[in-house]
Write a sequence for this structure.
């Protein structure tokens, strides 16, 4: 049973809206700071949390997130800290997915990681550099531990690959809005909506859109056709600003409230 | 040996290799794989490449026996495969010409590349000029300083050089940034990858374009001395020159294949780039292979005086050859490599690249070991993968060859 899928279905069926899925890197600006940020994000309207594991070589991330995870690593964040953060926020009603590049969990041991993720209350993984055809070991472990497997699709994905990814994913399918890395973009264009349509035709029930969403009107636009709106850099950027942490948290919460309003008014 | 180890097709080499990449790039990797497979089967592609190798880069490269150098290697016989004499000064051009021809076939007008020492970047900028392609080269900011001359060469050839300021600011981070560019611009851009690492099809494809080194050298040794060498030695960063010279010898089980990794300050220190000697299996840049990593699977920054070997990963076929014992991998320190660079310069009048000097230092050790074991008729073939012009400033500092007040750092080259 997928907590994430259930949450998204519940919002779709009972509130008539898309979910707001918020990304934060673990350990930025500190482990405790990332817990506070996660709590604030949920309070400001994030329905599902995506906790990023800091990694030295984040090839799918743009400058904002690269900078934050580098700071987190220099601050001494460890892989096991992700479980600490999940435990601290798992009773707030927002399912928690972990976004991780493959090597940290490969090196940790997939079964060991899955076991501890379940114990901490995590829902599953988003794997940006692991496609289903390269992920058999992870798929087996996820099935054994009843965890979500969120794989990505991109505008360049062929129909055959959309079908493969839709069949292998659980929780949702992550549709990359544009070709590129994470980061805020002024406009998203029409490819995201096309991709969501193609992914549904390929058999996916739940499709969420990420990459480049940073503004209320973008969340409103994406929330019209997607099951979830995934936002990362727009939350991390205010956390990276100058000033006292409380002030940065408040700025992040302002962004989150605006985006939460966007998804709540998308289908009105 | 029951089946041939030559020309292994990938994507896997035993448990190593594969394609651990973002979905956004899979279509491009599939297209490249299909284009390459079709090109391999097309005689006109092979003919075009043969002609370019002959009339543009100057193949076949010669072999040179170096007896005055060999006197310091236990008195065995040492031959150099002279990839340093290729156009642009290293083996990198072999691969780049192949991938540039493929770029034409996939119909893309823009190429990107990563570079460490700058040799692959220079080769790519050269091919881009020749084939009228827009060219962007990503290079760690640290490397743009160590290899300022090559930055200037690339710009002279019309390429844009982008200094990469993230992470360790070396080759690993240049690859990350090139991958980010590729994800964004894949519709009009081909990634000309410089070494036999990365996701499928690069490890097999780059090896195929480099295997001409071993094919030529094997025949040249037979012609010259009537038998195969006892040892083939090559430096290993990502490992393209090594796999290029090894491949033709893989089924000659009596020929010992030795890869020399960059030992930096020593493999027992935390400042080295000896991936197989000091790393563990993991996934970096799309392939499973040996990797320098900490207990959380974070990539450890490598260190080497040689920018071209300063990489915490290694091509997956090398990990495989190490795992089955067909090739062995040893580490050479910065100091040993620099001594070998000076020795070849002074005894033979050939200034090698610092990368290749690791292979020369390996040959000195292997020759001395052979002589100590009474095998004085041993023959060692060294892949001299590049020439040392780009390294003169580093050597001048290392050996105090110029007045310390002379400014050898070309500040501002990375602007």
């Amino acid at each position: 049973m997928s907590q994430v899928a259930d949450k998204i279905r519940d919002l779709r069926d009972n509130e008539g809206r898309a979910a707001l899925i918020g990304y934060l890197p673990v350990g930025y600006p500190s482990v405790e700071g990332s817990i506070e940020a996660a709590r604030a994000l949920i309070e400001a309207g994030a329905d599902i949390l995506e906790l990023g594991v800091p990694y030295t070589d984040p090839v799918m991330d743009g400058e904002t997130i690269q900078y934050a995870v580098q700071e987190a690593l220099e601050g001494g964040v460890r892989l096991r800290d992700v479980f600490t953060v999940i435990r601290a926020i798992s009773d707030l009603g927002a399912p928690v997915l972990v976004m991780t590049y493959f090597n940290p969990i490969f090196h940790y041991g997939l079964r060991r990681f899955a076991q501890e993720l379940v114990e901490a209350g995590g829902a599953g993984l988003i794997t940006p550099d692991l496609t289903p055809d390269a992920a058999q070991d992870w798929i087996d472990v996820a099935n054994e531990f009843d965890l979500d497997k969120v794989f990505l699709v991109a505008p360049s994905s062929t129909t055959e690959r959309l079908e493969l990814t839709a069949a292998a994913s659980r929780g949702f399918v992550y549709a990359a809005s544009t070709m590129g890395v994470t980061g805020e973009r002024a406009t998203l264009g029409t490819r995201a909506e096309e991709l969501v349509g193609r992914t549904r035709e390929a058999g996916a029930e739940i499709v969420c859109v990420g990459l480049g969403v940073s503004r209320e009107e973008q969340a409103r636009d994406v929330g019209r056709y997607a099951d979830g709106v995934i936002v990362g850099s727009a939350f991390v950027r205010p956390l990276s600003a100058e000033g006292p942490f409380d002030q940065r948290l408040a700025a992040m919460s302002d962004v989150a409230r605006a985006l939460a309003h966007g998804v709540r008014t998308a289908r009105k | 040996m029951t089946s041939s180890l030559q020309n292994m097709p990938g994507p896997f080499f035993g448990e190593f290799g594969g394609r651990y990449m973002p979905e956004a790039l899979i279509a491009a990797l599939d297209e490249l794989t299909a284009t390459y497979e079709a090109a391999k089967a097309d005689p006109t592609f092979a003919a075009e490449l043969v002609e370019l190798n002959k009339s543009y880069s100057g193949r076949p490269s010669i072999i040179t026996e170096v007896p005055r150098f060999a006197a310091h290697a236990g008195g065995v016989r040492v031959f150099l495969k002279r990839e340093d004499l290729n156009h642009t000064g290293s083996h990198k051009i072999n691969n780049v010409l192949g991938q540039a021809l493929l770029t034409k076939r996939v119909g893309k007008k823009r190429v990107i590349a990563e570079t460490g020492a700058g040799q692959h970047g220079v080769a790519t900028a050269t091919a881009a000029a020749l084939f009228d392609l827009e060219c962007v080269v990503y290079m760690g900011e640290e490397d743009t300083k160590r290899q300022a001359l090559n930055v200037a060469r690339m710009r002279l050839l019309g390429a844009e050089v982008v200094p990469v300021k993230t992470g360790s600011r070396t080759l690993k981070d240049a690859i990350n940034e090139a991958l980010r560019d590729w994800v964004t611009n894949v519709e009009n851009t081909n990634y000309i990858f410089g070494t036999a690492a990365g996701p499928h099809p690069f490890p097999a494809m780059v090896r195929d374009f480099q295997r001409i080194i071993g094919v030529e050298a094997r025949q040249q040794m037979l012609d010259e001395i009537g038998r195969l060498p006892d040892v083939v030695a090559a430096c290993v960063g990502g490992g393209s020159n090594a796999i290029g010279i090894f491949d033709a010898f893989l089924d000659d089980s009596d020929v010992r294949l030795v890869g020399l990794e960059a030992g930096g300050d020593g493999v027992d220190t935390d400042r080295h780039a000896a991936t197989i000697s000091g790393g563990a299996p993991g996934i970096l840049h799309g392939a499973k292979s040996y990797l320098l990593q900490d207990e959380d699977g974070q990539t450890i920054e490598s260190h080497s005086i040689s920018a071209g070997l300063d990489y915490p990963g290694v091509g997956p076929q090398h990990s495989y050859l190490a795992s089955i014992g067909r090739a062995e991998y040893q580490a050479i320190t910065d100091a040993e490599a620099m001594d070998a660079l000076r020795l070849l310069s002074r005894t033979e009048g050939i200034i090698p690249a610092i990368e290749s000097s690791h292979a020369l230092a390996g040959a000195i050790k292997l020759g001395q070991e052979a002589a100590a074991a009474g095998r004085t008729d041993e023959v060692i073939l060294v892949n001299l993968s590049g020439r040392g012009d780009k390294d003169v400033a580093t050597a001048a500092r290392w050996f105090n060859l110029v007045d310390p007040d002379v400014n050898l750092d070309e500040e501002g080259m990375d602007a």
